[in-house]
């Protein structure tokens, strides 16, 4: 910055805009971008697979998260490099579209870039590399379709679905309870699914967690669980055939507003005011009773006096229930949310066969279960936490476990949903990637142009997933991969993958390790798109740091 004066002596400031920027061009730009993306992929690589490592992330305000979910790790990592942010976006897109395979997609993108770097160094133009990758990705995409199989299940035979969800959960911290959790996830998805239209609305599944208990106590409730209790301890803890008024308007005597002046200078006046207030509230309670409500669920609170009155008038109530929960309660019970008290009418009441308050262990915690609802399509998965690691037992271990269980269940729910939408599957454990790698490699020979190098590199990059799986399981990566690849070619069996859990067979079909076809295809497409985008950047202009 410099201060200068014009011919009339007026001062002005010269900002040297150009000089403040650093600039990288050509190969340097690509190399630097590739290096940043690879750094992100390297972090996730060790988390891939059933034996993948977990990451511990601490937020600026001290919250600790332990997870091995790719999207979550990247979400919480505070990256400020633009290319690294693209990788975060990549994982997020996979999470958004598919919900699973978030680590794999980043590992794949990292490998593609690593291979691309070698090609660039050999003097191949980035556009050629991008085009070759595009061709290869289409070959891989189609090959996946070819090796995919239909996955048969029905509402009566949920076992195959459960097994697939177990594969997803096997690489998570919660894998000890994978069978139980997978069953819960599948039942929840089937409860809200419309099998004819092949549609699943995951919004109808509420995932609630409470610290304490054991992970095994996690349960599926055909109804809604709200982290609230009856407003008064003497209200009934169990209401059968409840008729529920769902209110978003205040449910208490009107409070004198400050802009009006009320002079209360005698005891009598105070008494009258009080009586008026009580009468008003009494009428509200009466109105609820008149329409037939046996339980009132309010978005707002009411004070102790109102609470006491409700208890006396024998009208149980729940206060401070959040908007999202109110909506779910309304959907589940077939009731209508009432925004103005005057609008309360019998047909707007929600109906539930049983509303009960449940307390937990020695804590004061209580939760409200709304079950046997009129519309049984809303369900709740209620997670109980347990400490997964002795060292964290005394700290916030339980809370973290619940959060991680929620994330893992989200993956399992997504897998079940994807299968209901489209029941094609490919086998996991890197077998699909190896099969695609072989197919792409063979296809490269048919391309006479420079692209063939890029296509071959794409085939090598596909090996990154099985390599990482082998490495993370403590196997010798190259030896294992070569053996499995040779076996695939010899037996013409695309189901051979990495035997991460040392089961004794590397046939993933026997091991029941599946992934959804759309998930795997999406991984390849997204990874290729991001890599192409990064390769096409040949000029990086950024503000230089002071
Ligand atoms: P992502 O976030 O990408 O889903 P995961 O850590 O869940 O990553 O790992 C998924 C990978 O692990 C997939 O390639 C899957 O096929 C593989 N995998 C999962 N379970 C097994 C298993 N029991 N044996 C071999 N591979 C497995």
- CATH-defined superfamily of the largest domain: GroEL-like equatorial domain
What proportion strand? 15-25%
Mean pLDDT: 85
Architecture (CATH level 2) name of the largest domain: Orthogonal Bundle
Tell me the distance between the termini. 13 Å
Ligands, deduplicated: adenosine-5'-diphosphate
Overall geometry comes to globular
The overall strand count is 21
> Structural class of the helix and strand makeup?
alpha+beta
Query: What is the share of helical residues?
Result: 40-55%
Number of domains: 2
The total of helices stands at 17
CATH level 1 name of the largest domain: Mainly Alpha
Structure commentary:
This protein is α+β, with helices and mostly antiparallel strands and 546 residues long. It has 2 domains: 21-150 and 426-543, GROEL, domain 1 (Orthogonal Bundle); 224-375, 3-Layer(bba) Sandwich (GroEL). 47% of the residues lie in helices and 17% in strands. It is built from 17 helices and 21 strands. It has helices spanning 26-45, 70-76, 82-97, 102-121, 126-147, 159-170, 178-192, 267-291, 304-312, 323-333, 397-421, 431-444, 451-462, 464-472, 477-491, 508-511, 517-535; strands at 2-5, 11-14, 21-25, 55-58, 64-67, 149-150, 193-194, 199-200, 205-210, 219-221, 223-226, 238-247, 295-298, 317-318, 337-338, 350-359, 366-373, 379-384, 424-427, 514-516, 539-543. Strands 11, 12, 13, 14, 15, 16 and 17 form a 7-stranded mixed beta sheet that branches. A 3-stranded antiparallel beta sheet has the order 6-19-20. α4 runs antiparallel to α13, α5 (126-147) crosses α12 (431-444) and α5 runs antiparallel to α17. The longest helix has 25 residues, at 267-291. Adenosine-5'-diphosphate (ADP) binds at residues 47-50, 52, 68-70, 100-104, 167, 170-171, 428-430, 465, 469, 497-498, 500-501, 513, 515.
């Amino acid at each position: 910055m410099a201060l200068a004066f014009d011919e009339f002596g007026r001062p002005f400031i010269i900002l040297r805009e150009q000089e403040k920027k650093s600039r990288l061009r050509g190969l340097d730009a690509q190399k630097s971008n590739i290096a940043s993306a690879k750094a992100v992929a390297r972090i996730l690589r060790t988390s891939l697979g059933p034996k993948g490592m977990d990451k511990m992330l601490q937020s600026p305000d001290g919250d600790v998260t332990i997870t091995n979910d790719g999207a979550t790790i990247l979400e919480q990592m505070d990256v400020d490099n633009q290319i690294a942010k693209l990788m975060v976006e990549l994982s997020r897109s996979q999470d958004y579209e598919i919900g699973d395979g978030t680590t794999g997609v980043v590992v794949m993108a990292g490998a593609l870039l690593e291979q691309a770097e070698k090609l660039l160094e050999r003097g191949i133009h980035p556009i050629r590399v991008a085009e070759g990758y595009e061709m290869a990705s289409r070959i891989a995409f189609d090959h996946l379709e070819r090796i995919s199989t239909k996955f048969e299940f029905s509402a009566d035979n949920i076992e195959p679905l459960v097994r697939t969800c177990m594969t997803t959960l096997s690489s998570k911290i919660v894998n000890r309870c994978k069978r139980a959790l997978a069953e819960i996830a599948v039942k929840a998805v089937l409860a809200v699914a419309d099998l004819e239209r092949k549609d699943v609305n995951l919004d109808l599944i509420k995932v609630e967690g409470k610290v304490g208990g054991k992970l095994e106590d996690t349960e599926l409730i055909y109804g809604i669980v709200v982290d609230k209790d009856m407003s008064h301890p003497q209200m009934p803890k169990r209401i059968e055939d409840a008729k529920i008024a769902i209110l978003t308007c205040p449910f208490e005597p009107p409070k004198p507003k400050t802009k009006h002046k009320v002079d209360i200078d005698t005891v009598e006046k105070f008494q009258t005011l009080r009586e008026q207030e009580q009468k008003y509230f009494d009428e509200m309670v009466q109105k609820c009773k008149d329409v037939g409500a046996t339980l009132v669920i309010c978005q707002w609170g009411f004070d102790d006096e109102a609470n006491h009155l409700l208890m006396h008038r024998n009208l149980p109530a729940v206060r401070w229930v959040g908007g999202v929960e109110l909506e779910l309660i309304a959907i589940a019970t077939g009731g209508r949310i009432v925004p103005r008290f005057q609008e309360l009418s019998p047909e707007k009441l929600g109906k539930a066969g049983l509303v009960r308050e449940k307390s937990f262990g020695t804590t004061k915690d209580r939760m409200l279960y709304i079950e046997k609802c009129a519309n049984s399509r809303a369900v709740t998965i209620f997670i109980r936490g347990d400490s997964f690691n002795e060292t964290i037992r005394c700290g916030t271990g339980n809370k973290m476990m619940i959060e991680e269980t929620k994330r893992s269940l989200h993956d399992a729910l997504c897998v079940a949903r994807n299968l209901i939408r489209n029941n094609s599957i490919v086998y996991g454990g890197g077998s699909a990637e190896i099969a695609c790698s072989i197919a792409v490699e063979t296809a490269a020979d048919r391309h006479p142009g420079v692209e063939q190098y890029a296509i071959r590199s794409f085939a090598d990059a596909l090996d990154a997933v099985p390599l990482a799986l082998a490495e993370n399981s403590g196997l010798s990566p190259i030896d294992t991969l070569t053996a499995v690849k040779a076996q695939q070619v010899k037996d013409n069996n695309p189901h051979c993958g990495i035997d991460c859990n040392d089961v004794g067979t590397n046939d993933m079909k026997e091991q029941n390790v599946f992934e959804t076809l759309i998930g795997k295809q999406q991984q390849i497409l997204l990874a290729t798109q991001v890599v192409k985008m990064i390769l096409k950047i040949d000029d990086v202009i950024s503000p230089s740091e002071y």
